[in-house]
Design brief:
mainly alpha; 18 helices
């Protein structure tokens, strides 16, 4: 049932949108289906029961898991857990909808929706990682605001700072988003960006002691003497790492975006840089798997970056070799990786709670 619903969502969005259309009706309808899927779910997702227990405890004034105060208070305010997850799902989907309508050409909206549903770590994972999805939604909306040309520079930073601080009271790791304002908003310099994005993962992968020192320094600075500090220190010392296969698969995306970065216009370019940052976290997970948790904050920008690159290559005058490489080989490889990740997700016991969909009417 899950697969049929996700395919149905893509088919709706893939319906041809005319050049005169400005209402994005097909996209709105596809997201309405996703909202119903998210709002009516019951015991769906790895952390569903954990979050329901947090809700029940909050009603009794108990915060034994040291949940961040803003999310804890939201649980006390909402009359039912089902209404809470429905509203948070609505916020997440609204943010992704705004991201797509603002940055994606109408001809490529179907592709954006396909990425949203075929990558299980976007929409589906938002149903489990509820607090992080909440932060992702606020992050997206803050970026939409600060890119408005009418907004003054100082006000842009104040808005982003306020949203980031607010997000820290939802999930403590949101503080790590603060420096990415400068990644997003700094003046474009393709040579500098190439140098940073090429050398950083190479150095940190080849010299893991530098990476370990950086992680400890950040943990000491941001989370010292807190429960989060000990949680992340435990992750760090567990020596869990992603496989070499995962590293190679993420490198396909990373190289593809890097090779095409200069083709993107000034509106898409900062979004692509944020997506590259997320891919860097995925690559560094080869050394410490905890980096995969931070990738979620940036992976959503693939719904803008990949369609924009495909559009740029279709419109560019490329040599025959580059056309084959950029228009056919890389996109096909990326699509195959998405299919592989989707298949792996739904055949891995760790994610068995996603296999069967149930609604509140079936409990």
């Amino acid at each position: 049932m899950v697969h049929l619903i996700l395919v149905f969502v893509f088919v709706i969005a893939a319906v041809k949108i005319t050049e005169k259309s400005n209402k994005n009706g097909e996209l709105l309808l596809s997201f309405a289906v996703l909202f119903l899927f998210a709002a009516l779910r019951y015991e769906y997702g790895n952390d569903y029961e954990s979050y329901r227990r947090i809700f029940i405890n909050a009603k009794d004034g108990i915060n034994s898991e040291a949940i961040e105060p803003l999310y804890y208070e939201l649980n006390k305010i909402f009359p039912s857990f089902q209404l809470l997850i429905a509203m948070l799902s609505l916020l997440y989907l609204f943010a992704v909808y705004k991201l797509i309508t603002k940055y994606v050409d109408k001809k490529y909206i179907g592709l954006s929706v396909l990425i949203t549903v075929i990558n299980p770590y976007l929409f589906l994972m938002s149903l489990s990682a509820i607090r992080q999805a909440f932060v992702v939604a606020l992050f997206i909306l803050s970026l939409v605001i600060i890119q408005e040309k009418t907004t003054k520079k100082l006000l842009k930073f104040i808005v982003f700072l306020c949203v980031t601080v607010l997000s820290c009271f939802i999930h403590s790791t949101a503080i790590l988003l603060l420096p990415f304002y400068f990644v997003y908003y700094c003046k474009h310099n393709i040579k500098r960006d190439y140098l940073v994005f090429v050398t950083t993962p190479i150095i940190l992968l080849l010299f893991p002691e530098i990476l370990s020192w950086l992680i400890n320094a950040v943990l000491q600075l941001l989370f010292k003497n807190s429960l989060s500090y000990w949680n992340y220190l435990t992750y760090l010392e567990s020596n869990d790492t992603n496989s070499l296969r995962a590293l190679l698969l993420f490198l396909i995306f990373y190289i593809y975006v890097l090779l095409n970065l200069k083709k993107l216009d000034e509106k898409i370019y900062p979004i692509a840089k944020l997506y590259l940052c997320g891919l860097e976290f995925a690559i560094l997970a080869y050394r410490y798997s905890m980096f995969g948790r931070f990738q979620m904050y940036f992976d959503i920008f693939s719904v803008v970056t990949i369609p924009a690159i495909i559009k740029a290559n279709l419109q560019a005058r490329l040599s025959p070799v580059k056309k084959v490489l950029y228009v056919y080989i890389f996109p096909c490889a990326i699509f195959m990786v998405y299919l592989l990740r989707y298949y792996s997700f739904f055949t891995t016991e760790l994610y068995s709670s996603f296999f069967e969909y149930r609604t509140v009417f079936c409990r």
